[in-house]
């Protein structure tokens, strides 16, 4: 129960890695705010965790929209109390018939959407929640980057890797600026994790990656959650500005 008395917000918490995070934080004693655009899945998960005895509140929002993020934070804080732990997990990686769009054919609207969901969302939630963390002199922030933020991967498009690299820069900057206020800021760079996002790609593409990994398998959402829970726990109180790969040894950098 390392997160007893914590109030944790997980964005994109209704599915994939986010749902594993919500579940693990709830089991670890935290009150959990789930934000997701998928209302049905978010409400169902919140209900299931509440029935199991946890304090959970679901707020539906498009994380790319600043005022929707603000409303979601307020709704969760009203229900559960001040948010001290923020996990910026929501993200998209658009595919076309299972393939990434070549940069030279990319629609500007698709580029901007990925910026909004993967990158501007992190600004939105950090901007809304850090004033309270600064005031209380405590905060934990983790953002979901990707190994695609550090290396060229032909299975994702340029907008995706751009946002994931930007999150690494943002993590380091915020760690520097917010450290003196008692706030740690870290990132996780997952490799290939078995979620709906990865299942949208041709099976051969995933098999090729698995063969290139020392551990020779897809990761499980719960394995990403384990690293995230460590980073927000008291055991990691002296860890900030770091990017931790959870990638089975793939693309060691
Ligand atoms: N799965 C992987 O292999 C992998 C690898 C590297 C990084 N990541 C990152 O981990 C994070 C989670 O990925 P995942 O595989 O669990 O994805 P997923 O597609 O399985 O789940 C993403 C969740 O985010 C929600 N979401 C998407 N757009 C949203 C929006 N605009 N507003 C609110 N909610 C929204 C979805 O409804 C869904 O519940 C993402 O940031 C992703 O880029 C995943």
From TrEMBL:
GO terms for molecular function: 3-oxoacyl-[acyl-carrier-protein] reductase (NADPH) activity. InterPro entries: KR_dom, NAD(P)-bd_dom_sf, Sc_DH/Rdtase_CS, SDR_fam. Gene3D superfamilies: NAD(P)-binding Rossmann-like Domain (3.40.50.720). Its EC number is 1.1.1.100. Keywords: Oxidoreductase. SMART domains: PKS_KR. Residues 6-191 form the Ketoreductase domain. It is an enzyme of class 1 (oxidoreductase). NCBIfam families: PRK07231.1 (NF005559), PRK12826.1-2 (NF009466). Belongs to the short-chain dehydrogenases/reductases (SDR) family. PANTHER family: 3-OXOACYL-[ACYL-CARRIER-PROTEIN] REDUCTASE, SHORT-CHAIN DEHYDROGENASES/REDUCTASES FAMILY MEMBER. This is 3-oxoacyl-[acyl-carrier protein] reductase.
């Amino acid at each position: 129960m390392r997160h007893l008395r914590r109030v944790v917000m997980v964005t994109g918490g209704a599915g994939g890695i986010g749902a594993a995070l919500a579940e693990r934080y709830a089991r670890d004693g935290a009150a959990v705010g789930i934000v997701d655009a998928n209302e049905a899945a978010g409400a169902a998960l919140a209900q299931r965790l509440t029935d199991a005895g946890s304090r959970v509140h679901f707020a539906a929002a498009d994380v790319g929209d600043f005022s929707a993020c603000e409303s979601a934070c307020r709704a969760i804080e009203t229900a559960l109390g001040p948010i001290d732990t923020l996990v910026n997990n929501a993200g998209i990686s658009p595919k076309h018939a299972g393939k990434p769009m070549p940069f030279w054919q990319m629609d500007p609207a698709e580029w901007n959407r990925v910026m909004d969901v993967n990158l501007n969302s992190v600004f939105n939630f950090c901007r809304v929640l850090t004033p309270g963390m600064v005031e209380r002199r405590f905060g934990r922030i983790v953002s979901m980057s990707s190994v695609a933020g550090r290396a060229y991967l032909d299975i994702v498009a340029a907008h995706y890797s751009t946002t994931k690299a930007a999150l690494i820069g943002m993590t380091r900057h915020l760690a520097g600026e917010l450290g003196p206020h008692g706030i740690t800021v870290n990132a996780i760079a997952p490799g290939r994790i078995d979620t709906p996002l990865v299942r949208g790609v041709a099976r051969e593409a995933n098999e090729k990656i698995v063969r290139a990994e020392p551990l020779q398998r897809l990761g499980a959402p719960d394995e990403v959650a384990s690293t995230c829970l460590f980073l927000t726990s008291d055991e990691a109180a002296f860890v900030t500005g770091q990017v931790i790969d959870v990638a089975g040894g793939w693309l060691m950098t």
